[in-house]
Every structure is written in structure tokens, then in C-alpha cells.
Specification:
The chain has about 425 residues and is mostly helical. It is about 65% helix and about 5% strand. It contains 25 helices and 5 strands. The protein has helices at about 5-10, 20-30, 35, 40-45, 80-85, 110-145, 150-165, 170-175, 180-185, 190-200, 210-215, 220-230, 235-245, 260-270, 275-290, 295-300, 305-310, 315-330, 335-340, 345-350, 360-375, 375-385, 390-400, 405-415, 420-435; strands spanning about 10-15, 20, 70, 75-80, 105. The strands form 2 sheets. It has a 3-stranded antiparallel sheet with strand order 4-3-5. A two-stranded antiparallel sheet has the order 1-2. The longest helix has about 35 residues, at about 110-145.
Length: about 425
């Protein structure tokens, strides 16, 4: 970390495209009494310090200095930090490790004022930007109350851009009734152009209970589902995330998600390998709504199981865990077990997941394999053993996984061994362990 050295500083502090000249600052009165009125500690906490000049940083704490003092070695530190260093019995300069020939500390008033000046300027600029953003949001909300057609679309686009660029704008939208206003644009006669922009805004806001109840009206849900099926990939992801926000609430009504059109749209989203963010969003929502039995039955009926099984080899770690979790939930129903058993490559694909990704993923995979092997032991256990299940189960038993998981592995291993003589089964374990 570069140290503050008066001989090398020359009265200028540079930071990115911002330079503060001490002489100019003094002329302009920046270093005057007005600066001192600010609470520097509060200002430092509120500002983003990504471009903080290195000379402002205390070498001990690596935090901005508020009361800089200089030692006889020329090195500058925050007063509290260097006094603490001395209190520990050190009589050296922490940076150079030189022994101090003078233990006095000198307030570095120049640097002190310059720090105040730099932070004051940044803080006032931030406050002005915040006020400008607030004014623009209010102006756009007023415009949206009056305009229709293309003008409404343009205003919504600009509002969405302001919200995504300036987090402070979200509170302004909320405080001025923006959520209710924007939600009112969703209905049976909403164009997809207006709907996609409105949803893109709503998904970035904090929705209270009443806002969620309002959005769960059948006409509004209908347009959201339509756009999930027919919109751009960005719109599809926003629709998926908005529905997820609605599900996460005490007033959620399950009939909102009991829709074949919704489930079909989500499955199309997770099948599109071009857009990993879409796959992740779709799987996250499917995992959540699978807690509803009616949804589980509907997913099985529209062929979700073979589609998800086919996806497994191409998914990344995060998505894999979600997909296997969904299959595990569906395997709790008899229809789900039958669909899993009849799905080509299901057993080999799931066996490969054991001891991969995470303990949770291994647990889901074991649960699925147990369900299908119990359903048809003669047929499924032999396929599983040939796919390397026996070796994987031995690894699980020998691992640090939880005892329940180990017990389930032992029981499944015993079930798999029933179709083999002891010698043959042992040879299968050795062979597949070598392959693995």
C-alpha cells in the first residue's frame, strides 16, 4: 500500500478521473469551516470507496483515516491505530519497522482537511444525484398516469432503466404509489410491449402483501403466463421471477400455479440451452411449486420427468441440484416412480450424480434410485449395478456423509445384491470401482 510521504505528494491527490489540488481547494474555500460540519464517519459509511486515494488509508487498519497523525519517520497513521500500536509496547514505525528516535505524533492537518474535502465533495455529489433520480422517478410516474400507447412504453422503459441503475429509485417508486400504478397496466387488454416493461419493473421492486394480492388477480396472472410463453428470453425470466415473488407470501393462492400453460412455459424455458439464466430461473420456480401436490400430478402428466432426465448431463452444478430435487419430489408419487422407471437413461444419468455436486444432490439421487429399484427390483437393480451403482454406494458408506444417507446406501446395496451370487456381486463392485 503506497504511504503518504509529504516530499512526494506535491499537493495533489489523484483518483481515477478526479484530482484535488490543495492550492485550488484552499482558494475555493473547500477546506473551510463548512466541510467540518459533516459527520465524516457517517459520510465514509455511506459512500462507495472503490476509488479512494491510497494516501487516505491508514497502513495499519487499511481503512480511511479521520484523524491522521505523522511520526518522526514521515509515515502517517490514524491516531487511534498508532496509539494502540504504542500501547502494545512497540517503539517502532509499523510500516518501516524503524526504531523511533522521537515518540511524539504530529497532527497532519493538511491531510486531515484534504480528506474532509474529498469526502465532502463526493458526498454532496452523491446527494445531488440521489435528488435528481428521485425527481426523475416522480416525473416519469406522473407521465405514466397521462399517456398511452408508445409514449407509455417509452416511459416504462426509462423508468426500468432508472431503477436498475439507481437502487435508491426503488423506494421513490414505492413511496409515490408506483407499484399500484404499474400493476394496473397488467390486464386482459395489455399489449405484450407494455406488459413486458411493467413486469421488468415490478420484479425489481419490494412487493408488500397487498401488492402481491393485487397481482394474483386472474387477469393479471393470465397476461404474465402468456408472456412467459411468448415473450423474449428476458421477459420470460422476469415473468418467472415475478411468479416466484408471488409464491413467497402468506397470501399466496395455489390456483395461481395450477395452470398447464404455466408449467409448459417453464419446461420450455429450462429446455432452452442457449440461456443458462433462463434454465436456472425456471428450475428454481419448478422446485418451489412442486411442494403442491396438484402441480406434481400435472407435471408428471405433461411429461416433465423425461424432459428433466434428458437435461441432467448438460446442467451446471447449481441447476443440477434443483433438477434432481424436482425429480426426487416427483418420485414420491406412484405415477412419478413409473415415469422414472420407463425413462431411458434415467438410471445411468442419476447414478453419475452420486458423490458429485453436493451431499444434498447425492441424497436426492439415492432417493430416486431407491424408489425405482423398489418398484421393479429385478429390472432396475441390474441396470443400476451395470451403471456403477454398487461402487458409488460403497463410496457413500465410506464417506463423511450423515448416518441416514449411509444407512440408505447400505439398504440399496443389499437390494442390488439380491440378483447376484456373492462372488459375482463382489466382482461387479471391483470392476465398477476400477472404471469409476
Amino acid at each position: 500500500m503506497p504511504m503518504f510521504q509529504p516530499s512526494a505528494w506535491r499537493g495533489i491527490v489523484e483518483s481515477g478521473d478526479h484530482a484535488l489540488d490543495l492550492g485550488i481547494s484552499s482558494k475555493d474555500g473547500i477546506l473551510g469551516g463548512g466541510v467540518e460540519k459533516l459527520d465524516l464517519k457517517k459520510v465514509i459509511e455511506e459512500l462507495d470507496l472503490f476509488d479512494l486515494p491510497s494516501v487516505f488509508i491508514c497502513p495499519i487498519s487499511l481503512e480511511p483515516m479521520q484523524d491522521p497523525v505523522t511520526l518522526c519517520t514521515g509515515q502517517t497513521y490514524e491516531r487511534y491505530n498508532i496509539l494502540k500500536w504504542f500501547s502494545l509496547g512497540h517503539l517502532t514505525c509499523p510500516t518501516t519497522m524503524q526504531e523511533l528516535w522521537d515518540d511524539s505524533i504530529t497532527p497532519n492537518k493538511t491531510l486531515h482537511h484534504l480528506i474532509y474535502s474529498w469526502f465532502s465533495q463526493r458526498y454532496l455529489q452523491m446527494k445531488k444525484r440521489s435528488e435528481d433520480v428521485q425527481g426523475r422517478v416522480i416525473e416519469l410516474l406522473d407521465t405514466l398516469k397521462k399517456v398511452k400507447g408508445q409514449a407509455r412504453i417509452q416511459a416504462l422503459k426509462e423508468l426500468q432503466q432508472v431503477i436498475t441503475t439507481h437502487p435508491s429509485a426503488k423506494k421513490t417508486v414505492d413511496d409515490h404509489g408506483g407499484i399500484t400504478l404499474i400493476s394496473s397496466f397488467l390486464g386482459p387488454f395489455t399489449s405484450h410491449a407494455v406488459g413486458s416493461e411493467a413486469i421488468g419493473i415490478l420484479v425489481n421492486l419490494s412487493l408488500d402483501s397487498q401488492s402481491k394480492i393485487n397481482l394474483m388477480q386472474p387477469a393479471k396472472i393470465s397476461i404474465i403466463v402468456d408472456m412467459l410463453n411468448e415473450g423474449t428470453i428476458e421477459t420470460k425470466i422476469n415473468c418467472t421471477q415475478l411468479i416466484e415473488l408471488l409464491v413467497d407470501g402468506n397470501d399466496f393462492r395455489s390456483e395461481v400455479i395450477e395452470s398447464l400453460s404455466l408449467l409448459a412455459g417453464l419446461l420450455r424455458l429450462v429446455k432452452d440451452k442457449r440461456f443458462p439464466n433462463g434454465i436456472r430461473a425456471g428450475l428454481n420456480l419448478l422446485k418451489i411449486i412442486c411442494s403442491y401436490e396438484q402441480v406434481r400430478n400435472m407435471l408428471i402428466s405433461i411429461g416433465a420427468i423425461p424432459q428433466l432426465v434428458q437435461l441432467l448431463p448438460s446442467l451446471n452444478s447449481d441447476c443440477l441440484e434443483s433438477a434432481v430435487s424436482i425429480l426426487d419430489i416427483l418420485s414420491t408419487l406412484p405415477e412419478g416412480q413409473a415415469a422414472l422407471k420407463d425413462c431411458p437413461q434415467m438410471i445411468p444419468n442419476v447414478v453419475r450424480l452420486l458423490m458429485r455436486v453436493s451431499e444434498s444432490c447425492t441424497q436426492y439421487a439415492l432417493s430416486i434410485l431407491w424408489a425405482v429399484c423398489k418398484l421393479a427390483p429385478d429390472e432396475c437393480t441390474s441396470i443400476a449395478v451395470e451403471a456403477g451403482l454398487a461402487a458409488k454406494l460403497l463410496l457413500v458408506i465410506q464417506s463423511s456423509f450423515n448416518p441416514v444417507l449411509k444407512q440408505q446406501s447400505a439398504e440399496l446395496l443389499k437390494l442390488c445384491s439380491l440378483n447376484y451370487t456373492a462372488a459375482i456381486f463382489i466382482s461387479k463392485c471391483k470392476l465398477t470401482r476400477t472404471i469409476q
